[in-house]
């Protein structure tokens, strides 16, 4: 049976939310990565866009786990996730990109759904598969806090790569994707899952499945949404996760102060998908 990255990422993707005092809530998306500590201790890491946490003023948020019963029925089972100790953030933030990571204690059955860090794209992945403008990628998220069903699974959408060149990530840290971005999408994984793509320079086909990056922003011009998403390369997710290994003492310490992020691909942008949205009747 062929490996299906889409299903694995759906299982690893969660909704993040925090109610606000005015009846609205802040909503974002995150996904779980399996990455043992340097000494081999099992560890589950939640990654999301840094502005998702920045826009949550309270000390705790809700992380939308899902539990499957013995009869196979899924149910939504959100847990409390502590993200601050007073004014002290418990996540790490990439120094230059809109990416955050925090170690979490996921339920055992959900920890198994975390994807290996190795599934994230490397610096040479785009060139290896000769990827470029027009290639289709998929994205998972919770647009305006909506889920695919009462069990709280994310909504899968697709779009095409809309910018060139894509690499190296150190020069082009973000790329554009042609699809609509809504509040709640930020922090969701963007990935490629093709079972049969022609191998460069050959008539043979190859399986292409990897996480390309994370949706972090939308493009706006003069207040108009252009239905273009900005994706931060997986390289910066890897670097943010690595920051957890460099911490001394407790695994979660204060991150550096958040700074505005202006993607090199488009100056006229607005941090999009973790904003305060009016309360929505989301089927649960």
TrEMBL record:
Lineage top rank: taxon: Bacteria
One Pfam family hit: Trypsin_2
Membrane-spanning segments: none
Protein name: Trypsin-like peptidase
Organism of this sequence: Caulobacter rhizosphaerae
